[in-house]
Amino acid sequence: MIAARGLMRRFGSRVVVDDVSLDVGRSEIVALLGPNGAGKTTTLRMLAGLIAPTRGTVAIDGVQLTRATGALLRSRIGFLTEAPGLWDRLTVRENLRVYAGLYGLANHGPVIDRALDLFELADRASTRAAELSKGMRQKVALARALLHEPRILLLDEPTSGLDPEITRSVRALLDERRAAGCSILVSTHNLDEAERLADRVAVLHGRLLALDSPASLRQRLRTGRVIVRLAGDPAAHVDLARRFDPGASMDGDTIVLHLSNAERETPALISLLAADNAPIVEVRQEVPLLEDVYLHLLGDR
Amino acid sequence: MQRIRALVGKELLDLARNRTALVPVVLVTILTLAMAFFIAIAVPSMTGHALSEDTELLKLSRLIGAHETLSEDGQIELFFFQQFLMLFLVIPVTGAMALASHSVVGEKQARTLEPLLATPITTLELLVAKVLGALLPTLVISLTGLALYFAGIALFGESGVLRAMASARTAALVLLVAPAAALVSLQSAIVISSRVNDPRTAQQFGVMIIIPLSALLIAQFMGTVWLSAKALVLIGLGLVGAWMLLTLLSVAIFDRESILTRWR
User: Which of A119, A126, B22, B142 has the largest CB neighbor count within 10 A?
Assistant: First the structure.
């Protein structure tokens, strides 16, 4: 489990990360969203013990991250850096073998074989890293981050530049790691990915603007806009809708209205329209996209 | 220890795939070898003038101590071979400096340093592995060259010169001074490499090691300084101490944060 409290990081006079507190529990994926320069990579580096916070604390599995505990805690973390950072002249297997040694894995042959199989890299094991495509390099970097089966995963844009097929396999793998009890923090620009993958989303722009489940975040931006589509001219029924919202309007075969409490008023509206024999085809409440919430949060700054 | 072994293994593998990086070290070794035999054996043979005809040279050669069993030519050859031995053992290190200078800043540039620093490797382990990664191939080349050097002396030198070379002074040079000087030089290069952002800057700083070496060698050839076995042992021990201090210094000033955040 990851616990960050009041993290602040200053570079010279510039504060890059300010007062960030977040927890990532066991079997949880938290997506870290934010524009370029929002402090995502800096936050991940602080959590990985690569750079020290100017203020605040980080604890991994209850152990405070300090200079003295850094090496121990780094052995529990799998960190995927922004760039894959493979040694180009070494083969895929050799790259993994060096890291197996660095993580102190005994009898690392079977461990490496397993990682190669997991990422479908077995047929590229003897290929030099320089000859790999961007997607393949990213897969090797992921295999490297997971080689020592860490309980904590810090992943900086794991699917950046990957094709949809590989992206899907990476997401499946993260699902599987979550099910295995890992605490996973993923930095991403991909809002769709955050929505599909994460249990909670942290929106960062120097400060933590929001930290909640994607559904709860979307809930924050609900407008109460309800759209009723009818099989026919809605003009005969719009007056009923205006009992709920005097501003209700028609748009083609739909009636559009805003309800102050959509959850409570929508059933009553439908009952009334049905009693009036309105040919209802569809009733839906407009739900904002995570992207809308994200842009709204950033726009508030 | 396992982490040092893993990283040294990577350094050697990387070098094995990039053998041209070792060409300067090999060339310097061959040139130094050739130079010694050219001056001590080939020049007298080509000119038809024995070395002992030069009385100044004969006087200079006696600085290293009287070897009554050797002929006058043998004494001068011994003097030359002893002088070149030092050059021969130390100069290849300048080639290895290029490897060491590149070691940290090269990782920075290739963006391989961050994942490496994210492992449990300590700064001391990282720096020791980097030094060993440059030192081991250099030592192999130097020792191969040394074997050729002694084989050449046995083949072309005056009778008794090889036996006279097998001295405490030679042992001190080969077993202590040369590896210690290499460690100091390479550790300095690693310090520089971890403080700069460009391999070219690191190499240019590294070249500065040639200055004290040249001064020492010139002084030796001029007869100003003659380092006895005892003096060499003291210098060797001093260099080992300097290396230890330098290692501590390099650990203290190795700033992971700066390296990661100021590398673009």
Answer: B142
